[in-house]
């Protein structure tokens, strides 16, 4: 009788460990797939120029042209100031 009780306790703990590890593994697998789906969706939308949602478009497409325009404008203003000082 004590052997059966011992076997029952071992089976209960084994089943508990099995289910707990199964739940943890399924959560990890689901989170990995969720991350992959979100990452591919972001990479897809960020790679298209018609979509303004990706940060790469703002950094690569809009910012350098704006910086160049402001730099040229600043250079132009400085040259006018130097001309005024020279006169």
Strand content: under 5%
Measured as a percent range, the helix fraction is over 70%
Q: What is the CA-based Rg, rounded?
A: 32 Å
The profile of the biggest β sheet is:
none
Q: Shape, please?
A: rod-shaped
Low-confidence sequence ranges: 49-62
| Oligomer classification | single chain
Number of strands: 0
Question: How many structural domains does the protein architecture include?
Answer: 2
The overall pLDDT, averaged over residues, is: 72
Number of helices: 2
Termini separation comes to 112 Å
Order of helices and strands: HH
Structural class: mainly alpha
Q: Can you tell me about this structure?
A:
The chain has helices at residues 2-46, 55-86. It is an all-alpha fold and 87 residues long. It has two domains: 1-46; 55-87.
Structure characteristics:
87 residues; mainly alpha; 2 domains
In short:
Helix content is 89%, strand content 0%. The protein has helices spanning 2-46, 55-86.
Summarize the SSE layout with pairings.
Layout: H1 2-46, H2 55-86
């Amino acid at each position: 009788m004590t052997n059966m009780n011992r076997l029952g306790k071992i089976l209960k703990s084994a089943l508990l460990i099995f289910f707990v590890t199964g739940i943890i593994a399924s959560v990890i697998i689901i989170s990995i797939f969720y991350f992959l789906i979100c990452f591919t969706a972001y990479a897809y939308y960020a790679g298209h120029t018609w979509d303004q949602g990706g940060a790469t478009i703002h950094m690569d497409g809009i910012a350098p042209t704006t910086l160049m325009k402001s730099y040229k404008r600043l250079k132009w203003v400085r040259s006018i100031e130097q001309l005024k000082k020279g006169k």
